[in-house]
Every structure is written in structure tokens, then in C-alpha cells.
Amino acid sequence: MASHEQPPQARAGLPQLRLDELLGELQARLDAARGTRDRVHSLLEAVLSVGRELDLHQALRSIVEAAAVLVDAEYAALGVIGPDGRRLSDFHTVGISERQIAEIGHYPEGHGILGELIRRPEPLRLAKISEHPASYGFPPNHPPMNTFLGVPIRVRDQVFGNLYLTEKRGGAQFDEEDVSVTSTLAVAAGVAIDNARLYEESRLRERWLRANAEITHSLMSGAEHGEVLGLIADRAREITGAALAVVAMPMEDTDSLGVELAIGPRAEALRGLVLPEHGSLIGEAFTTVAPATTPDISDDERVAAGPPRFTGLGPAVAVPVGTGEGGVRGVVLLVREAGQTVFAGKEIEPLLGFAAQAALAMELAERRRDAEQIAVLEDRDRIARDLHDLAIQRLFATGMTLESAGRFIEHPEASERVVRAVDDLDETIKIIRSTIFGLRSREGTGGTGLRARVVRVAGEKAQVLGFPPSVRMEGLVDTEVPREIADHVVAVLSEALTNIARHARAERADVVLAAEGRKVRLTVTDNGVGIPAGGRRSGLRNMAERARELGGELELSSPPGGGTTLVWWAPVATE
User: Where does 450-571 sit in CATH, by number?
Assistant: First the structure.
């Protein structure tokens, strides 16, 4: 009978095989445990590195870099959702070079797959991006991307932005573990972003407080009005990261605001510009006593008509200086470069506080100046009383004595000298009385200045023109132009605008009044049909005669774009 027992070598091999299998399984579990340990260690390191950052920009950069390392992604990005809740306002990337970014063009705004996470803020994992219904391709020069993992970042239960990860290295797919570690990092990122924002807000508040203290000190130290306005504009521009700062002040006896100061690109084209209270961005902030914003000032209908003045600029905010109770003293306009973030509520709030504090400091300075002026006037009244009660009375008594004594002088020449002395005393009394009147009269009671009169004429002619003319003034037109010459300027402007309304068929008119040292120059430009041939020239003759009487000249020309340019100038009498 044959034996079925296995040879000793075979019986020894079975336990050996099972042992190898067990060892292999144990090794695999050890590797998995080691991998999990290493990944948890990497996650902890990432959380610590993200939490160390207090600068918001650096914190966002650290989050993107940590996410790419954790899931071994070739490309990573963090998109910050804008104030409207529908678009991305900021975008931070890893894995794409500066050259590639320049070739791709503008950063994404949140369409396609990126917009899917904005609409549905929950983790999204895709094996192939192009197969998702929301995908509609990449822009030219964009690197190819297939695998995708997106995770939202929440800050205090509000979605701050999204993490986007693509192209897991080695051609692998993102798995549930990738989703888990990325979601964990997103929670830590939310805390880090919140801390960075709080730190940034505290630093920003400190900078506003320092700026307010600086302005108050300047005003209380007796700094010039223009110097203080420049300080307000410069500090507001510096703290908000704006490229351009403009300060406009209300013009007396008009419904307009004049640009007193502008700092930044294209500032020259804005200085002296006159803006209506109704229909302009600055005017809206002034009349409503509330901030007025725009995402793109170069394409905003509330910007006054005329040549482009904000090319290359974008988001803007106009903030009233003062409150409705104390009166609005002016408006500060801040404009950022095109493509930068819009002015949001949390940023506008401290700006409003800064403007209110600046207005309060200006009011306190004015009260102080008023008190000083009252002291000066009281001193003048005292001097006037002393002159009247002492000097005039004594001079009058001396004159009476001389006049009486002259009757007893028989020598004709001596008598004549006494009479002349009495007459001189009478003239001296008249001079002193005139001085007393001058001391007791207050400054600032004169008529309205040329600046306000020009604005008033432009506003009146808007009805017959069908549109408000653009007005800009340069130099000290109220102080350097004498009253009689100012009357001629107003008359010429009125005639020029009337001619445009009657004959030019224009859609735009620009007025520039400049006090240029020894002369005043008025330039009126329109885009109409030009001066008709054979038409009546009585108005033009009158303007030319006015210029000749003053030693000036009237010049007419046609700009390259059509229309007419009228330049009227006259010399200004100087000491």
C-alpha cells in the first residue's frame, strides 16, 4: 500500500510560506503606520508653520505651500472670495512661474470649476477636470491639469476662500485621506487667517490714530490750511495703499466743490477742477454724508464729463470730511491702481473715523483762530477808542487854541503859518478818523471772489448748453486778479459759453481759468462744429476789445479733434 504522507521538506515549507505572508502583511501595516505617522507629523508641521504667520499675505502664501506639500500636488492655489461673495478678489499660486503667469494673463475671477466651490463650499475631488459639467477649459498658455481637489477655508463660519490643488505627482489620484488632511489644514488656516486679520486691523487702527494725532498737532501749531490738507491726503493714501488722493472743498455761494489738492498719478489734471454736488462721485459723498464707492473709476458715470483723467486707475472711495451734525467740510477721494482690491466696509470704517477726527481738528483750529481774531479786534477797538478819546480830542483842542491865538498875531506871515498849522491839524484828525474806521472794520466782508463767480456762470449756462461745462482753476485767482479785471473775465466767459450754446452744437465744453503770475488766462474749449464762416462776430469783437483795453489778447484756434479753442488773457497789475 502506497504511503500518502508528504516528505519532510514539504511539511517544513507550509509554515514557512504562512510566516512569509504574515511578515509581509506586518511589514505593509508597519509601512502604512509609518506613512500615517509621517503624514500626521507633516500635517502638524504645516499647522505650526501656518499659525506662526501674522502678516496676512505671508500667511496665505504659507497655506498654499503647505497644502501642496501635504498632498504632493504639482500646482496649488488659494483664492480669496471678494466682498460680493461671487468672485475672487485675490489669488495666490504655487508651481507656476512668473513668466507663465504673465503669459496666462489676468488671474481667474471664479468661473468654471473655481466658481463651483464658491457656489457650493464643500470639498470637491475630481479624477479629470474636463469631465465636470462646470468646466469650460483653460485660457491659452495655461499648463495642462487633470486631477483636482478643492477645499473651502472658513473664518468664523464665513467662507473666506478656497484651496485648489491639481496634478498629484506620479499620476496618482487624490484620495479620501488627501481630502481629510487638506480639510484639517483648512481649519488651521482659518484660525491663522483670523489671527492675521486681527493683527492687521490692530496695526491699521494704530496707524490711523498716529495720523490723527499728527494732523491735530499740525492744526493746533498753526500750520497753513493747504499744508494740513496735504497731510490728510498723504496719510490716507499711504495707509489705504491708494495711488491717488484728492481733497475737494465746497465753494462759497455755489453748488460745487473745488479740488484743492491732488497727490499721485495724473494729479496735475485734477487740481483746480470744479465738480457739481449732484451727479459726481465726490458730490454724492458730500451731499449724502456717506462713503461713495466704485469698482472702476475710469468707467463710472459719476465722473465729470471731459477728457479722461483716471486712465489706469480702478477702485475708488469718496469719504466726507465731517458729519451731518457738524457740517461736511470737504471730501477725500482715494483711488487704487486698476486690478487692485475694491474698498470694502471694514476698510472704509476706520477711514470714516479718520475723516471725522480730521474735521473735528479743523473745527477746533478754526475756533482757536476765531478766538485769536476776536482778541485782535478787541485790541483794535481799544486802540481806536484811545485815538478817538485822547489823540483827536487833544489835537482838536490844540487847533482851537492856535486858531484863537492867531487872532492876536499882527504879523501877516506869522498869522499865515498858524492858519496852515490849524489846517494840518484838521487833516491829521481826518487821517486818524480814517484809521479808526479801518481798525474797526472786519476783514472778509468783501464781495464774492472770482472763483465762485466763474462757477456760478458755468452753472447758469448749463441750462442753455444742455450739459454742465467742466471747470478747472489754477493759481490764486481770487487774490491775484483785481476786481475790475475779474469783471471782464466773467463777462468773456458768459459770452463764450453763450456762443457755444447758440452756434457750436457741442456735447462738451471745458473751462480753464489760470492766474499765471503777471497775467490771467481764460481758456474755453468745445467739441462742436467750429466757428461758422460768414457768421456774426459781434460777440468775439467785444471779447477782443476787452482784452485790448487791458493790454491782453484774444486767440481762436481749432484743436485736432474738432471744435473751437478760445484763449483770452490780460495782464494783472502787480506792485
Answer: 3.30.565.10
CATH ID of 29-199, from 3.40.1080.10, 3.30.1490.100, 3.30.450.40, 3.30.565.10: 3.30.450.40
Instruction: Kindly state the DSSP code that residue 541 receives in the 8-state scheme.
Output: H
The partner residues of 149 in beta bridges, in order of sequence, read 125, 165
CA distance 129 to 108: 16
CA atoms of 80 and 89, how far apart (whole Å): 6
DSSP 269: T
d(CA 569, CA 446): 25
What is 10-23 written as a DSSP string? HHHHHHHHHHHHHH
The helix-helix angle for 225-240 and 176-220 (nearest 10°) equals 170
| CATH architecture of structural domain 222-343 | 2-Layer Sandwich (3.30)
Q: Supply the pLDDT for residue 368.
A: 67
Please list the rounded mean pLDDT of every run of 10 residues in the chain (575 residues).
Answer: 51 54 54 49 60 73 84 88 77 86 78 83 89 79 87 86 89 87 83 80 82 78 73 85 89 81 83 83 89 88 73 88 74 88 82 78 68 66 63 68 69 75 71 58 54 86 85 84 90 90 87 88 91 67 90 89 90 69
In this prediction, residue 381 carries a pLDDT of: 65
Look-up of cell digits 503624514: 39
Q: Where are the strands (E) in 448-508, listed by range?
A: 470-474
Return the amino acid letter for 142. H
Count Cβ atoms within 10 A of the Cβ of residue 408 and give its class: 0-12 exposed, 13-18 middle, 19 or more buried: exposed
Give this prediction's pTM. Answer: 0.60
Q: Alpha-carbon torsion 233, 235, 239, 242, what sign?
A: positive
Distance CA 549, CA 112 (A): 71
